[in-house]
Amino acid sequence: MATTSLSFLLSHPNPKPHPSLPSRRPLSVSVSVSCSSNGSGSEPAAIHYAKHRRPADENIREEAARLAPSSHGFSARYVPFGAGADTAEHYSLDEVVYRSRSGSLLDVQHDLDALKKFPGEYWRSLFDSRVGRTTWPFGSGVWSKKEFVLPEIDPDHIVSLFEGNSNLFWAERLGIDHLGGMNDLWVKHCGISHTGSFKDLGMTVLVSQVNRLRKHLNRPIVGVGCASTGDTSAAVSAYCAAARIPAFVFLPADRISLAQLVQPIANGATVLSLDTDFDGCMRLIREVTAELPIYLANSLNSLRLEGQKTAAIEILQQFDWEVPDWVIIPGGNLGNIYAFFKGFDMCRELGLVDRVPRLVCAQAANANPLYLYYKSGWKDFKAVTAMETFASAIQIGDPVSIDRAVHAIRSTDGIVEEATEEELMNATAQADHTGMFACPHTGVALAALFKLREKGVIGTHDRTVVVSTAHGLKFTQSKVDYHSGLIEGMECRYKNPPVTVKADFGSVMDVLKKKLGKL
């Protein structure tokens, strides 16, 4: 049987054996992949590939270029959101376009017929074989699903920090102690990523495409710009810095955490602090990108959603391709809820799984336009003026992706729930007491879970995933204020302030005995 480099296998979706590559020093690693094609011709039951060490003077990007396969026939394009495969209006991903001719949002549409030539079992095996490796670019949780993301991009144009592959952990104590004995509660830690938020998953795709437009097609794009409540700006600036692309960030003055503000500054972005809210920043960046050759990086751009959807595929992988019952996602600009739906539904359509989970979008009560729309029976959408919330990244009153979010919720028999400031901070504190260090946005999702458990909507034994979108270390001031009892009008029921004690044995023992009970 022909033996080839593992990197060649992982970069080529055709399960048929390939001619041997030039001999190189072998490592004692062997991979078996069992699959069959829907196409004509017989396929081997199993193919064994040996991993070979690349030459010492060759890096992983150069290795990927040398082993790049011939064209595989997969493709993707922009179409108006909601359009079918036979739509007459479509655009190449190499075009700089953000809306359809009618002004609606665009979506990235894959050639599913080409992907369906290979069965779901094949895709599951291929994606599983790439996890945790350093083969470029498949060490990334996003690019390990390259065929489902940007199938036509050259690996040499990809800008990746090996994002994704984030922890899905069993929240055992939280489920047992605080949620009525839930025994199958999980938290997907998308915030454990390079810049501390899930935004990295989308930004690697967007900046990679910009890199392709600049390097390969010589498009006169001078940089990438975004409006941000914090996390998007961190991701834009980091990936642009890695690719030597200028980044321009519009931030609402005094409305994001210092940890969020310092990230784009440290990465060398041009940061404009504007006396407005996120919606005002968004209006300005759209006006600027209409006049200057700056590529828009906000979720109006559907490329980002292609990366973000891989978190859904990753959840399925981590459950050995079993579908959870519920997935709860914080929602602000609302692109992420659609991205998760798209990832789950694509896997269903291509036979990797047989159903999708029910989705819950959790909004802060101070910025809840989708919740109000849902409660009206989808009859009357109105943008709101978002009020200040500890969940600052979802403090958005006029979400760009409202139509996408409605489609995701309705297609999955989903639910929209809201959380007050006290509810989200209490939920965060309860989670932290069980070993987590949750951001306020995760607190919104957790508070929604508490409410749905109390209502009996989510069952004790339902497999439930809460998506944590950012790292708690970005929002330490909110925790300091909570545990200090300094939040006006909030009881801070689960606060745990430090105890000031004299530095002598007797005083220390008095405090400990009081804490532990009489010994």
Automatic annotation (TrEMBL):
GO terms for biological process: threonine biosynthetic process. Residues 1-26 are annotated as: Disordered. It is found in: Plastid, Chloroplast. It comes from the Eukaryota. The modification N6-(pyridoxal phosphate)lysine is found at K199. Keywords: Amino-acid biosynthesis, Chloroplast, Lyase, Plastid, Pyridoxal phosphate, S-adenosyl-L-methionine, Threonine biosynthesis, Transit peptide. One of its GO terms (molecular function) is threonine synthase activity. Its EC number is 4.2.3.1. CDD domains: Thr-synth_1. GO terms for cellular component: chloroplast. InterPro entries: Cys_Synth/Cystath_Beta-Synth (IPR050214), Ser/Thr_deHydtase_PyrdxlP-BS (IPR000634), Thr_synthase-like (IPR004450), TrpB-like_PALP (IPR001926), TrpB-like_PALP_sf (IPR036052). Residues 159-469 form the Tryptophan synthase beta chain-like PALP domain. It catalyses: O-phospho-L-homoserine + H2O = L-threonine + phosphate. Homodimer. This is threonine synthase.
